Amino acid sequence: MPAAEEATVKHAPLDVVSKGVLSVLSRLPEGVQRRIAGDLAVEHGTTVHPEVGMALRLLNAVPASSFETLPLEQARAQIDAEAWVFGKRTEVGRVEDLSIPTPEGSVPARRYDPREDGPGRAVLVYFHGGGFVLGGLESADSVCRFLCARANITVLAVDYRLAPEHPFPAAPDDALAAYRWAVQQAPGWGIGPDRVLLGGDSAGGNLTIVTAMRVRDARRAGEDLPAPMFQVAFFPVTDMAHESDSYERFADGYFLTRDQMRWYIARYLPDAADRTDPHASPLLADDLGDLGPAYIGVSGFDPLREEGLAYGRRAQKAGNDVEVDLEPRHIHGYVNATGVGKTSVAALEKSVDAIRRRL
């Protein structure tokens, strides 16, 4: 049912005001934006984009803006609200809410088609971010719409089970089940079963990589399961057993914080022994071979910067065709900020170009 396309969501007055303010500020000259942003810290010889610094100043001024200080349901509502404030509702052909069966029960999903009368050239199974604790179909709506329209692909957003109610390995189990289901459904949608991509941001980037690993292992064990045509992982979580230098360097002030990451990991992986499992921390896997082509987007001002770059290097060294795109002046979560200025759109367009080259 295409009800998702027509649904009207009521937003809090502060969110409406914030979105309006950001819309005005994003159109200001860069020099004015720089003055509004204030002093910008220099890291690796550069600063964040002025429009990013301006948005950060607004975001950091909002009371109780740290997810880990809020009750769980309020934190989940806030990440959806922030995605709406910073995102843009790109028009697509049609949107349909679905349900994906898994061995543990069904999970909600949402299908985006670039045209009203047909699918795209491939289907991208997309996993949202939120530290495996927050996020869902609404928080990923803007990026899914953008990729659907710009890359001319069908996007299947997956609302996998969240911790702490469903800790590891619930999320990767749901992700693998969603990939298998998409492969099965694709021919009925007019898409070949070998034209299924994997993608996601942050926690969803982790699930993208881990699902590719599990598909590879299933194929090696003899399962007749097509490999992902391509992977698109934005600022992925790749090591939950160690904190890189980026955790200290970007501990606070750049949207994702060190304390938030610790809060997420404690809820997703309450058993510390699981944090070295390759299906939780793919950077620690002994074997990263045969994972196929991928695009890895990394933010310059991000606690996850170093582990994203480290995974990209290891995946390349293992023989995979991997493009690592470091956005040196951006922060974590830029894919969800397509409604704020030009820099997030420009960064996201690089992934669109990478997808188009594979289709």
Looking at this protein, list some descriptive labels.
359 residues; alpha/beta; eight-stranded mixed beta sheet; globular
N-to-C span: 28 Å
Structural class: alpha/beta
What is the radius of gyration?
A: 19 Å
Shape: globular
Characterization of the model:
The longest helix is centred in the middle third of the chain and has 18 residues, at 203-220. Helix 6 (141-151) links the parallel strand 3 (123-127) and strand 4. The two termini are 28 Å apart. With 359 residues, the chain is α/β, with parallel strands linked by helices. The protein contains twelve helices and eight strands. Strands 1-2-4-3-5-6-7-8 form an eight-stranded mixed β-sheet, sandwiched between helices.
Secondary structure blueprint with pairings:
Elements: H1 3-6, H2 13-25, H3 30-37, H4 50-61, H5 72-86, E1 94-100, E2 107-113, E3 123-127, H6 141-151, E4 154-158, H7 170-185, E5 196-201, H8 203-220, E6 231-234, H9 245-249, H10 258-268, E7 294-301, H11 305-317, E8 322-331, H12 343-358
Parallel strand pairs: 3-4, 3-5, 5-6, 6-7, 7-8
Antiparallel strand pairs: 1-2, 2-4
Helix pairs in contact: 2-5, 3-4, 7-8
Summary, kept brief:
With 359 residues, this protein is of the alpha/beta class.
